[in-house]
Amino acid sequence: MGRYKKGDIVKGTVTGIENYGAFISLKEYYSGLIHISEISYQFVKDVNDFLQIGETIFVEVLEVDDDTCQCKLSIKNIDYRQKTKPFRKRHITETSHGFHTLETMLPLWIEKKLKNKE
Predict the structure, then answer these.
(1) Is 20 in contact with 35 (CB distance < 8 Å)?
(2) What's the predicted TM-score (pTM) here?
(3) Residue 113 CA to chain centroid, in angstroms?
């Protein structure tokens, strides 16, 4: 059994765009094609109006050929540009000890770990 199955929603990268659709690179050597008919329910004149090369999107797997590692893909039934939660940066504050604790304790921690492995 292969990595992907019909109905999976997976992340991929647009690697090429042609008049008839877009090529998508997936994980583990798999690739796929979103045929122009699977981009939108509306008339699609130009695939470039929907996708750009290098863009990472979500795709729905329609069919999988595990022998050739190729998939037929679609984006017309899903929100292919799902937004992930924004990464919240935490402000790092330096303590009054600074890196002195690390400088002092690191050799001791390393020695302790090496003794535990023996």
Answers:
(1) yes
(2) 0.67
(3) 36
